[in-house]
């Protein structure tokens, strides 16, 4: 326990003092690659810049998928039913140990289902825990909320397992010719070795996060008053008072239900 806490403190120092934001890392890596390509391949500067710019545009489709995952995950996590469930679960822990265990466990489950949903709902749940549980280190609480991200690629939204399970002309290209035939998710996501690894992490990680909680004198808490409710019910326009077609359509749930029906219909056709 002593060594584990000291190792955690060293990692915290490294991350907080030496590790910049991810955007800074990407920028630095771009410049490093630019210099290496310019110096080792014999290309002139304009060719390297053109290759860099053209390559960025090829990521638009992937970027759209990632953006949708985050936006839809946010929408799902903000639903009234999910919010009520989170508030109920947040009322269960009575101490820091069970609080950290529960946050980590829920984060793992949510990220296995969908990484965008997991990132959003875990952060919201951690804030709810901070409102209800005293004496829990807020830094570790947030770290626990994001720790479940470690299993996302072994879950239902893993990009590589889903990509290699799709038979199309790009399969050979994205695998550099290694994979010619689609690999079903029964051999990747739902394979025995993957499920065993997921199970071990699911059991062990919550206890690990709870065990590295700092000593009482080193705890940093957050004032619960700062954690305002970001998901208060918004006041909808009553189209019965302002009887216009625009207000009726904007506040009617019929269109949403029809869209959901079409979405589930497409999923049924696609999978079955």
Q: How would you portray this structure in words?
A:
The chain has a domain at 46-224. The chain is 66% helix and 0% strand. The chain has 13 helices and no strands. Helix 4 (60-77) runs parallel beside helix 7 (115-132), helix 6 packs parallel to helix 8 and helix 6 runs antiparallel to helix 11.
Q: Which sequence of SSEs, written as H and E, runs from N to C?
A: HHHHHHHHHHHHH
How many E strands? 0
Compute the CA-based radius of gyration. 23 Å
Mean pLDDT: 84
Write the layout of secondary structure elements.
Blueprint: H1 2-17, H2 22-40, H3 45-57, H4 60-77, H5 80-90, H6 96-113, H7 115-132, H8 138-147, H9 159-164, H10 170-174, H11 192-211, H12 245-251, H13 254-271
Output the keywords.
mainly alpha; 272 residues
Summarize the model shown.
By secondary structure, the chain is mainly α. It has helices at residues 2-17, 22-40, 45-57, 60-77, 80-90, 96-113, 115-132, 138-147, 159-164, 170-174, 192-211, 245-251, 254-271.
């Amino acid at each position: 326990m002593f060594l584990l806490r000291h190792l955690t403190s060293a990692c915290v120092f490294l991350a907080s003092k030496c590790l910049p934001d991810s955007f800074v890392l990407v920028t630095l890596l771009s410049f490093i690659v630019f210099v290496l390509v310019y110096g080792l391949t014999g290309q002139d500067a304009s060719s390297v810049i053109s290759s860099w710019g053209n390559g960025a545009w090829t990521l638009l489709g992937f970027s759209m998928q990632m953006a949708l995952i985050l936006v839809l995950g946010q929408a799902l996590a903000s639903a009234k039913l999910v919010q009520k469930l989170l508030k109920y679960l947040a009322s269960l822990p009575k101490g820091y140990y069970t609080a950290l265990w529960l946050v980590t466990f829920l984060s793992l489950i949510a990220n296995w289902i969908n990484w965008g949903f997991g990132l959003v709902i875990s952060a919201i749940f951690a804030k709810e825990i901070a409102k209800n549980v005293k004496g829990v280190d807020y830094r570790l609480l947030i770290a626990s909320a994001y720790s479940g991200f470690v299993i996302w690629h072994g879950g239902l939204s893993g990009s590589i397992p889903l990509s290699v399970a799709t038979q199309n002309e790009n399969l050979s290209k994205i695998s550099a010719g290694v994979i010619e035939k689609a690999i079903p998710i029964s051999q990747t996501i739902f394979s025995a070795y993957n499920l065993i690894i997921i199970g071990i992490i699911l059991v062990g990680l919550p206890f690990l996060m709870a065990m590295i909680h700092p000593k009482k004198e080193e705890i940093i808490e957050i004032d619960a008053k700062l954690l305002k409710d970001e998901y208060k019910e918004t006041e909808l326009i009553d189209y019965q008072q302002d009887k216009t077609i625009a207000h009726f359509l904007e506040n009617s749930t019929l269109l949403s239900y029809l869209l959901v029906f079409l979405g589930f219909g497409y999923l049924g056709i696609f999978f079955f």
